Amino acid sequence: MTATALPAGIRADVETLWGYHQLHHPPATTDVGIGLGSHDLGVATCAAQLYAAGRFPFVVFTGANAPTTIERFPRGEAVHYREHALSLGVPDEAIVVEPRARNTGENITLVRELLAARGVEVASVTLISRPYQQRRAHATCRKLWPEIEVYCASLPMALDDYVAGIGDADRVVNMLVGDTQRIDVYAEEGFAIAQEVPDEVRAAYRRLVDAGYTARLV
């Protein structure tokens, strides 16, 4: 049976990682919104809200599938995001779909290539992601598209509300642990800029790995 609430014994460590990965950027008006594919339909909800608020003139949803999303979004992450945004009132002409990206680096590079091919000049972007992908997405974009201003956004949600919305506590914890590992690994491999990782974050990460949350480690 899938657990929909966090076990008490790991709550403090999960909260530590949850807080670390969110950057709390103030709302910004940018040239384009980029919705990063994942298992979280809240990305498309957030994009629709920001579009309605006039934060950008159009949004690019980017994402094919990963093992964690193929069942939830069988026609591709970006395609399902588009359909959800349309249902929330975003006009079709304000949505672009990039359906090939299979990781965050490809999200950035393929969107950059798509916009360049369309002759769209970009000086600033809003990266829209699941809450705990913000730090890694920002670091990746800074590495691969260094000349632009980058702002991050997600639906503002408490940890327990997010876990309940996803409906699978283990999935959320495994994803958080995996994203924490990738902060160091991707910087070392040249995929992202280096990020400071406080000691308390490293300690929380190690305890969760020791507790068995290793499904998303690389």
Automatic annotation (TrEMBL):
Segment forming the signal sequence = none
Instruction: Give any Pfam family that matches.
Output: DUF218
InterPro entries on file: Cell_Envelope_Assoc (IPR051599), DUF218 (IPR003848), Rossmann-like_a/b/a_fold (IPR014729)
Annotated Gene Ontology cellular components are: plasma membrane
Database matches in CDD domains: YdcF-like
Q: Which residue ranges does the record assign to the DUF218 domain? A: 44-147
Name of the protein this chain belongs to: Uncharacterized SAM-binding protein YcdF (DUF218 family)
